[in-house]
Amino acid sequence: MHESRLRVLSSLVLAGGLSMATTAMAADYIQAAGSSLVFAGSYQGQAFTGRFPGFSTRLTFDPAQLATSRLDVTIPLASATTANKDYDEQLRGDAFFDARKYAQAHYVATKFRSLGGGRYAADGTLTLHGISKPVTLTFTWAAGAQPVLSGKATVRRLDFGVGSGDWADTSLIPDAIAVSTKVVLQAAK
Amino acid sequence: MSLRNSDERWGAVSQGFHWLIVALIVVMAYLGLTMVDLPNTPHKIAVYTLHKSIGISILALVVLRLGWRLYAGRPQRLTGIPTWQSRIASATHAALYVLLFAVPLSGWVVNSSTGFPLHWFNLVNLPPIASKSDALHAVVRPLHEWLFWTLIVLACVHAAAAIYHHLFQRDDTLARMLPRNWLRAPSTDRESSHA
Known about the structure:
The structure holds 2 protein chains of 2 kinds. Chain A is an alpha+beta fold. Chain A has helices at about 1-20, 85-90; strands at about 25-30, 35-45, 45-50, 55-60, 70-75, 105-115, 120-130, 130-140, 150-155, 175-185. Chain A is elongated. Chain B is mostly helical. In chain B, about 70% of the residues lie in helices and about 5% in strands. A two-stranded antiparallel ribbon of chain B has the order 1-2. In chain B, strand 1 and strand 2 form a beta hairpin. In chain B, helix 1 (about 10-35) runs antiparallel to helix 2. The interface between A and B is medium-sized, with 15 and 14 residues.
């Protein structure tokens, strides 16, 4: 576990160094107000949705410079909420996020692809609940003074040990959790 | 035993409804009183789901039971029972029917107020009948339990009266809610005295 954390850390440092070296090539952005990061699943066949308040995004992106683009999202888990206090207690507790031990999730993508029609894919790595696995974010990009990234991803909760033990029962909560985000961006100063 | 109710006896259908609901209430009491303190695991969810599923089933059974009673009628009142006893018995029966609706309905409202699914025997999701609300939950959660205890007290009074009639009045009150010949003595006595 320490080793994998070290590896993540070192790759972060490496990627950070890379992005600093390439800032001249693609525009740097930070997250602006009006952004949201939400998730959706179902419990006993009834849909639920939740959100991650306080997530923060740093992005280096230019549709013409995908090779030097980079997305970095930090997601606090202790404030994740479904607006149902019983669900939230479980969600933040030991069997799911274990937010006391793993306070944040982290998503870093440095590989970007154009899907055509103004759509892009970022093949990144999500670190959640102490586990790092590849997750692909597909998104559209609306350029402007405040560009908007609108994206979707599917996170397989069991890949990250979220809902362990008896909670792994996918007839209760399916494995695939839909994540979607709208990030309003502004130029980094 | 005939399916329909005769002037003398409850038929098989009414008896079936009566005793099935008695058995389900016993199961529900056990589930309801023990499930609350279970640790938060999928096992607890399974027990709650069973409690909710049986509760909705009882509600449906009570609707059918009342419908059957309206359609098939009821046995005549037993002769020789004082009017005041008949009146108390009728009032108790009416109250029991009201509670057989009120307990499951209040449970459905409790569930609705929490926003939890109502996954009937893992087959189908039933809609909420009230909006999700902590304030509503704080009222209906204890109400559900008090209605339950009222039902239990009344059911015990009802059962005690039936047993009293059987053992001391030696009439057919209890025997006619059971298959013929299960409780032989009182009706045999009565028949021989009529002969």
